[in-house]
Amino acid sequence: MVEVMSLLVENVFLQISFILLIVLGISFVMRILRQPLIIGYIISGVVVGPLFLNLLSSNETITAFSELGIAFLLFIVGMHLSPRVIKEVGKISFITGVGQFIFTALIGYVIGLMFGLSSVTSLYVSIALTFSSTIIVMKLLSDKEDLEKLYGKIAIGFLLVQDFIAIIVIMIVSSFSNGELIMSSLSFSFLKGILLIGLLIPIGYFVLPRLDYFFDRSQEFLFIFALAWGLGLSALFFYAGLSIEIGALIAGILLSMSPYNYEISSKLKPLRDFFIISFFILLGSQMIFNDVSRFILPIIVFSLFVIIGNPIILLVLMGVFGYDKKNSFLVGLSVAQISEFSWILILLGVRVGHLEPEILSLVTVIGMITIASSSYLITHGDRIYNHVAGYIPFFKRKIIHEKFVRNNYEYFLLGENRIGFSIMKAFGDLRKPYVVVDYNPERVKKLQAMGIPCLYGDVSDIEFLDDINIDKAKVVVSTIPDSDVNMILLRKMRKNKRGVVIVTARQISDAFDFYKAGADYVIMPHFLGGSYIAKVIEKFGNDKNRYIGEKKKHIRELRERLGEGHEHPHVNRHGK
Asked: Could you count the other beta carbons within 10 Å of the beta carbon of residue 446?
């Protein structure tokens, strides 16, 4: 046995193979128990780390794999952050990111003093509690396919603001050990970042579109280009003294305007999923659990503050700025854990002599508890909200509801998106009193500016549906593919025997469930294109002139949709 372990430590290939077998076994158990696989990855890291098998005594390879996983993850996330998205959620992301940092730090500092920690230790711990794990949250949101939802976009922006603050704090602490002038260092790094971005933006606008010819002819070339572009810019930013993460994110944002961004994203996801496992293994292997017995009560209180207090802070901040309680609640759940930056900050504090070593154990246990808890909360956020929505009294938009009820609309469109755009035009052509309901405040403002009857609201909120008298409507069309939301809607419409209810489904099994629940028709977006073109062929046959007329009509519609910011929907390798 000793010889086998020695061979594993010496041979990198055998080491990685054995570690993956351990990951597979623990993940299999997690799958049986219906737990998030991230927990299994972190537990695997604890098992192969110094506490048990100690297989990572030389972990350069795992560290390199971890950095590749982080780069791929942020590169893909960047491709979801087009300038339009940044403009849409940038303001609220900045406000919540800075606001949450301030309030969490202040409250955490007071809690630390109450437990007898010194003022310096309390300051370090309170700041460590403010940072949430960008990598964990983005991985979970990606698995849920929620990156494109409003709360997902806000969460991404919010986390990036947090990371920027974390980098500044870590640079300040690092300056104590190497004697740097922190303001000059920060200014120089900031100027280098601005200069690099300024040089890259023209390439993104003028050079990348000219490569379409090569991308169209070779998918292999597209794949190689994506790898070189993402990792190349990551390396460039790192060489300039900035972080790999910033470089990967910028590389993704510059490609977000390309028509190939979704194709590139789908090709890179298998690589991301493989290499990001290394990050969680490395994270688990660095867990330290020594000298925690005297910190049991502070660990419990600090963990509860992160798991419950941080989401409440976000819920209040977003509610103040007009966001509905469901999106506010879901964004809040994304901050219910601490970050890898938290460990880095505390470790630096120990190295410069500001903290005792046992404080690292305290923060490590808090991290393990909060990461495990938040994985469940984020994964099952929609179901949790349905149970607690009635107990969240914040910021109900009664004024809008009352104004809306007096108008007596007959036709309802729930969700003005790619599908809803055409339906909205059809409602207008029918000259029936109709209204659009959407949960994106920016979209609502734009529609209202265009003179389109529009209401901001969350259709999964039963009280909201009661307020708008949706059960008295003649026609209700939901373009929201969420099965829970559509089931709530169908139950509300059961009493209305004459009302027509049309809902949207991604899966055939969901369509059968909706029909059984009383839907009059179910939209299946993946099948719409084929059905439509089949009818066009039946109608036009081989009459080329008729196709030319249809083409001109289609081009006009596509240009109109382009002006509305519509993009091709994301389809992953499973067809979801």
From this structure: 16
